[in-house]
Amino acid sequence: MQRKVAETGRDLDAHPSSGEPAFVRPAVCEQGCRFFMDEASARKSDMDKVGVTMKFVRNETIYSKGDEARHSYKVIEGAVRLSRIFADGRRQIVNFYLPDETFGIELAEEYTSTAEAVGDVVALRCPRACIAQLTEGNPDISQKRLAMLSKSLSAAERHVAMLGHQSAKERVASFFLALEMQRHTDVEGMLDLPLSRQDIADYLGLTIETTCRALSDLKRQKIIDAPSRRRIVIRDLAGLQAIAEGDV
Amino acid sequence: MQRKVAETGRDLDAHPSSGEPAFVRPAVCEQGCRFFMDEASARKSDMDKVGVTMKFVRNETIYSKGDEARHSYKVIEGAVRLSRIFADGRRQIVNFYLPDETFGIELAEEYTSTAEAVGDVVALRCPRACIAQLTEGNPDISQKRLAMLSKSLSAAERHVAMLGHQSAKERVASFFLALEMQRHTDVEGMLDLPLSRQDIADYLGLTIETTCRALSDLKRQKIIDAPSRRRIVIRDLAGLQAIAEGDV
DNA sequence: GCGCTTCATTGACAAGTCTCAATGCGCGCG
DNA sequence: CGCGCGCATTGAGACTTGTCAATGAAGCGC
Fold it and tell me: Distance between CA atoms of A102 and B27, rounded to whole angstroms?
């Protein structure tokens, strides 16, 4: 077995001793991208055999805004945040990506946001050239790519809607509701979130203090519990929905 | 000549007397979609010959959130707004589309936002089934579709960033800057915007009053002029940029 | 376990935005 | 031509959120 999972986000699909990137070698390309695109096999795949599995440690940068956009990624484990930093030092998180979701798939010369690992992350990486190659004459893959982009777009539109008219409390409530929708734990109402308060605040377009206060409010109303930093329990789903919709 | 441009947004590419929609007829499909996808020919095309040209009057609904998503559109003349309405009656405008831009191209069963004509609008309409048909075996078109979606996504991300951390004045400044970037008039700094103050406010996630005050502020600083309701003149581009970036 | 560091929470006050209300302005219609 | 209507602008006060500062809680290395 020649290839192993990377320890910390270094190139795995670039051939170690040649200037030519590995994705032009058919074997890697085919295997890597098939796994990348095929949701069913991605989960149960033998990681050792896939040349594009990468690991990133907590807070590691996966790519930076402005970098040449050479790869797309699919989350296997952990969570990834896409963000932009502003001149005043504040950060806006544009989107989160959870297991099975794909990011960096848009069509632009350069990445328009920075991608970072929220906690430790395992992701599949696929060169765009490889995807483009597979796309030709394969309407299925082309379709999947469209579907992924569409999903990101509609998430972004929801996000815009939230930032545009919801109060702090409503935003926090909406955020937990959205997480509950795509919960990965098996207990209803139990959310395991790898995000810090700062991450949440930056996603919601609030300061960390305002986010905290909204959280405390919800706790006081017995709508949620926060037994530990990274765990939220929804005790009153209907109440949470009411708050998210603005029914005080 | 059997077909004419529609007066007010009714079906044009559905065969009048048959249950079968017209887009399965190759001629219409091919012609309509070629014009739809090909930017160069769209502008100079004989409208009379294209079966998918539609007109919408000011404030007319092009499609509603929740409708079955059967068509994509390309703006020829005028401006289109994509918006969502909330329980409290407030409206968030998610995006604007100007001539040559395409909307409704995402991949979802139902439209996720409502599309309306800002002023009078001329648009090309293409059934998605037709696009899908053309996409197969035509990587060029597939690529263009990806590019359009990508553009919408990056616009949405910019929008999120704006709503998440900019002040009222910064938002207004950024908005005019963005318009200047894609100006359609030939005079530098002269913006012809078909939007009402309410449209602008709903896009920026502000109330109409706050938007007005920001505008008046910019006028007082001699950064812009507003000689008439629907016209803005940028008198100090650098100053506008500085404000948009937060340098007071 | 202890101290250190980082993150989370709470409080008091300042600043920005929204709400409500009044006024101004432009435009079409009777 | 003036009237009414819709849209835009301005003002005053209430409310929400941000800022600054202090305290509390949790994780980690020694």
Answer: 38
Q: Which residue among A153, A205, A246 places its CB closest to the CB of B163?
A: A205
Select from B113, B150, B205 the Cβ nearest to the Cβ of A165.
B205
Write the residue in B90, B106, B160 that is nearest to A159 by C-beta.
Answer: B160
List, for residues B161-207, the tens digit of each pLDDT value.
Answer: 999 999 999 999 999 999 998 876 677 888 888 899 999 999 999 99
Max mean pLDDT among A198-202, B14-18, B32-36, B98-102 falls in A198-202
Q: CA-to-C1' distance for A196 and C2, Å?
A: 26
Q: How many CB pairs below 8 A link A and B? A: 118
- Give residues with Cβ within 8 angstroms of A46, minimum separation 6: none
Task: Please check whether residue A88 touches B, CB under 8 A.
Answer: yes
Task: Mark out the alpha helices in chain A (DSSP H runs).
Answer: 26-37, 39-44, 128-135, 139-165, 168-181, 197-204, 208-220, 237-245
Are the beta carbons of B154 and A92 separated by less than 8 Å? no
CB contact under 8 A, B136 and A136: no
Please report how many Cα atoms fall inside a 13 Å half-sphere around the Cα of residue A214, on the Cβ side: 25
pLDDT band at B1 (very low <50, low <70, confident <90, very high): very low
Bigger pLDDT: B20 vs A156: A156
pLDDT of residue B96: 94
pLDDT in tens, A58-96: 999 999 999 999 999 999 999 999 999 998 888 999 999
Residues A149 and A106: beta-carbon distance below 8 Å: yes
CA distance B235 to A126: 47
| Cα angle value B222/B227/B229 (rounded, 5°) | 120
Beta bridge partners of A103: A73
Protein-to-nucleotide distance from the CA of A20 to the C1' of D1, whole angstroms:
82
Tokens of A82: 């896409």
Q: Which domains does chain B have, with CATH numbers?
A: 22-154 (2.60.120.10), 166-245 (1.10.10.10)
pLDDT higher than threshold 70 for residue A119? yes
Q: Do B157 and A245 touch (CB under 8 A)?
A: no
